Structure formats: C-alpha cells, structure tokens
Amino acid sequence: MKNEQIAASQYTRWAEQQLLDYENRCPGSIFSEGLSLTVQEGYRLQHAVAQLRIGRGDSVVGYKVGCTSPTIRAQLGIEHCVTGRLYKSEQHESGVCLKLGNYSKLAIEGELAVILKRTPKPADFTQPGIPPCVSGIMPVIELHNHVMHGTPSSAGELIANNAIHAGFVLGGTTERSDRLDTPELSILIDDNCFTTCKGSQLIETIQSSLQWLQESLKKTGDQLQEGQIILTGSIPSLIPIKQECTVTIDAPPFGTTIASFVN
Questions:
Q1: What's residue 2's pLDDT?
Q2: Helix, strand, or coil here: 72?
Q3: Which domain holds residue 178?
C-alpha cells in the first residue's frame, strides 16, 4: 500500500507540472529530463492531468484517436493508435481566428470527426460504412503542440501529453446517411491545396477508429457516450504552421472548416 501511495503522489506531482508546462506553452518538460513512461503509465498521467483540469472547471467533450495512418505513425515514430481527451475550453467553431503564440510549434491535421448518438455496440462494426451509433459527421482542424523530447520518440510521452492535442476547430454537422457520395478531404493553406485524400479510406478510418477507441476505453473503465465528439484520425501528415495563414478543410459531402492563424 505504501508503494501505491508513493506512486499516486508522484503522478500528482507530474500532473501538476504537466498542466503548468502546458499552460506556459512549454509542454512535457519532465520528459526533457529523461523521464520514460510505458503506454499504461502515460495514460495514467493523462488521466491525472484531466482530473486537474476538470477540477478547475473544464470538461471533457470527447476523445481523439491518433496515429491511425502509416503516414502519421512514421512521422511520430509510433507504431499503434493512441487516444487523448477533448476539452470544452479548446473547442472552436469554423471561422475562428487563433494566435500562433498560444501554441508551441503549432501543427495541424485535417480529418473527419463524428458525434455519437449513443454508446457503440459490437453490431455497429459488422458492416462497412459509417456506424449506426454516429449521428453526424463534420470536417475538423485539429491543433497540436508538436513537441516531443524523448529520443527516440515514445508512445508513453505522446500519450502523457494528451497525444500532443491542443484543441480543435469544428465545421457544420452533416447528418449520417447510408447514401453518401464518395468522400474527399482537401487541406488548403491560403487557398493553395496542400494535400488531398479521397475514397473509402476516409469512411473506413471512422469505423476502425471508433471500434479501437471503444475497446481501448474498456481497459480503463471508461465508455463512449451520447453527444461525445470523436476525432477519428488523419490520413495526411501533420502540417507545421509557422506563419500567419488561413487553413481550410474542404470535405465534400461533409462541408468545410476554416481557421485563421495570426501573430
């Protein structure tokens, strides 16, 4: 029991430092000092930080799934999916103007997010397409503090830093349908197309990410619920944002999301 109490107090100290560093825009300093955590330990620290944030009045509105594509995994040096929490205080609507100085090495992803109409069931994943537990889909710009201290990169550090998540920008919601046209997602920076992906992979990512997330949360006693927002993961790479610009995610038939970044 004594060792468990010491361990709990250590996570509390780490969590307090993690949150302080995050607020001061120098995330994850404890990892620059040689700290190494397993995946399980990383999630325990992420949870401890979440409890601090909730205690200060914030709330969790959903989850993100990261490292879903070979491109992102190669970029981050991680070989499996990870998850992080979405916070109400970091949810923005399309058209928002954000300050670059509020982030540390800002990088964005363009992806699809979903809203749950209920807790997923195993039967939701037996057929291709958008699972029946989804009520709506929208394009999203995910914001990241692209900072990793460990060499090489570790999943424990990534997870403890909430999968380097720093907020998200949501577009309008398109109601789920079984009769959707072939989807497409383009990322434009100042109206110049940076990259495009299209086809069934976008829908397959929604299904595979939700299924993985549901099983992953079972291990911690958590459960997906009605109304939660789930960021289902990017197929293209993380894109650094180093100067003032406007980012547009154009994702027919799901609509468009826009954010401007200024000094």
A1: 41
A2: helix
A3: 2-262
